[in-house]
Amino acid sequence: MARLMRIAGLGVWLGASIFGGVAAAHPAIRERAGELGDVRPEEVDGLYALAVFLPGLSFLNLWGAVGARLAGVPGAVVAVASLLLPAMAIALLLPMVARLPLASGAVTGMLYGAVWATVGLLVATGIGQVRKLKGAPARLLCGVGLAALLLGLHPLLLLGLVMGVGAAMAWARRGLPAEPGGGVGSGPTGAAVEPGRMAPMRGGEGR
Amino acid sequence: MTVWRLFWVVASLSALSFGGGSIMLAGLEREVVGSGAMAPAQFGALVALGQATPGPLAGVTTVVAGRLTLGAAGLAAAYLGLVAVGTAIALLIGRVPRSWMGHPVVRGALGAVPAFTAAVVLYLAVRIAAGAAEAPLAGLLLIGLPVAVGRLWRVPAPLLVLGGVAAGVLVHSLV
């Protein structure tokens, strides 16, 4: 019960404070899921890839899947329901939305400010993510990915390509000792991994 | 539109929208605007509201659209439609065995995901900034950059958004 309450609390926090959808939520969930139980950051990466590939709201898919990992069916229900509670609160607090005076300068200005604040938050999240990437290949992959998106490549296709590059590099590196800096293809810690096992985490990583 | 119809529309759109919330919103727009339950401008305002509020991008737009279409019952129908399908898909994802993710090649593929996420986050920022047609330079310099710097200095996000909204009213009145 205590774990469900914590899932609900973190779900409400995510729903009330993450601007920019699942891409912005992934780093936060990656950092904080471990606080609730045995869900490691690299496992969240896998759930994220599946959440984006499958239909539905990817943010709901990801947080619900983390809830399912932590507490089974009740965990998934609580996670999804709690993530949408702030949206419900907004719907309840804005009964006048139907009559929004969109021509009013104040309302337009508020939306204008919120949109640019969202841009700022996304830029900060992106920079934070790039800083955490290990090794030059990962940063290069990020830069190439950004350029490809700007040129019109579909994000799902890019995700498949990026994961393919990572898998190919891991395949090519089989049997070689892990690079000290880790990076693309070596898993999040760069540590050697036995098949079927999760890599050991560095102390405090992702916290 | 009835409550059951709205529940079915939200649930089926959610279950079939490969590509995330924006794909779902396109289907929702066709249903609620096409059926005459909502004016196109009203739906457009809801999409803007969804972008400007936290949480799942399509979540706010969907539940507020439900409320505006059918009142409290519509709100509940939209919420339950999202929760039902979201839970089902989450359970499906959650059942993927951990051992699959521990395979070295799979781990290599997953190790590349953060690079993708960083690229998508920055791309989203560029897209949203490019969509803001009105006074983009002022918005970027006076709101976007200060919020980004503040966030990098670990100022809480809700506080930054409140500041951004206040600055937006001020900047919009001046430009």
What profile does the largest beta sheet of chain A have?
none
Radius of gyration of chain B: 19 Å
Unreliable residue stretches of chain B: none
Query: End-to-end distance of chain B, in Å?
Result: 42 Å
Principal-axes geometry of chain A comes out as globular
Order of helices and strands of chain B: HHHHHHHHH
Low-confidence stretches of chain A: 187-207
Helix content of chain A: 55-70%
The helix fraction of chain B, in percent, is: over 70%
Number of strands of chain B: 0
Describe the protein's architecture and organization.
The complex is a heterodimer of chains A (207) and B (175). In chain A, 67% of the residues lie in helices and 0% in strands. Chain A has seven helices and no strands. In chain A, helix 3 packs across helix 4. The longest helix of chain B is centred in the middle third of the chain and has 38 residues. Chains A and B meet through helix 1, helix 2, helix 3, helix 4 and helix 5 of A and helix 1, helix 3, helix 4, helix 5 and helix 6 of B.
